[in-house]
Write a structure and sequence with these properties.
Shape: globular
Distance between the termini: 35 Å
Largest sheet: 6 strands, mixed, barrel
Structural class: alpha+beta
Number of helices: 4
Number of strands: 11
Oligomer: single chain
Helix content: 10-25%
Strand order of the largest sheet: 2-3-10-4-9-8
């Protein structure tokens, strides 16, 4: 009984008491169809476990001799990979891209591998300065932790970036959640 009385006092004194229904609905004078269009829609939460990744993870691109550092970035929509010497060509009537993938952040000589991948589209991507540029988008096979997937990557020279690979929201939706305070969680198999 004491707990119920305390809850009532807290609700009332902190302004958490229920408002009248008319005060809650700012669109109450609008037709029902307009209310539905303006209403925010949340996706239902299911009980499936979600894998947790750090904001930096090691990623292996098919054809590369070893994993490289990737930045998992919820501020970017599209994933990106470091690409040098890009060239478009045709294979069996389809457009493909050929490029050299390296790890410009490597302290040693690192590696250079030539990758060929089908061109998916050309996308307009905004850089941090707000300017937009056309970038080729290719489909690549990758592995993060023990998870293998096929994903779209834009081709960009990332030599002045923190990591040669950036994983954006489109791919993150398939992977799981990002803990912005930790790195290299993929191999630890942390599940929430």
């Amino acid at each position: 009984m004491f707990v119920l009385a305390l809850a009532f006092v807290l609700n009332f004194s902190c302004g958490w008491a229920e408002e009248p229904a008319a005060a809650k609905e700012p669109n109450s004078g609008q037709p029902e169809a307009e209310k539905t269009e303006q209403a925010a829609v949340a996706k239902p939460v299911n009980g499936e476990p979600i894998r947790i990744y750090g904001w930096r993870e090691d990623v292996t691109i098919k054809g590369a001799p070893k994993p490289v550092l990737a930045k998992l970035d919820t501020g970017a929509k599209t994933s990106s990979i470091h690409a040098e010497k890009k060239e478009m060509f045709e294979r069996d009537g389809e457009k493909w891209m050929r490029f050299v993938f390296t790890d410009p952040t490597a302290k040693d000589e690192g590696f250079k591998v030539r990758i060929e991948a089908p061109l998916v589209r050309v996308a307009r991507i905004k850089d941090p300065g707000g300017e937009s540029e056309a970038r080729e988008v290719v489909m690549l096979d990758m592995k993060i932790g023990e998870r293998s997937m096929r994903a779209e990557f834009t081709l960009k020279n990332r030599k002045n970036m923190l990591a040669p690979i950036l994983i954006g929201r489109t791919l993150l939706k398939e992977l799981g959640a990002v803990d912005p305070g930790r790195t290299h969680l993929a191999d630890q198999k942390i599940i929430r």
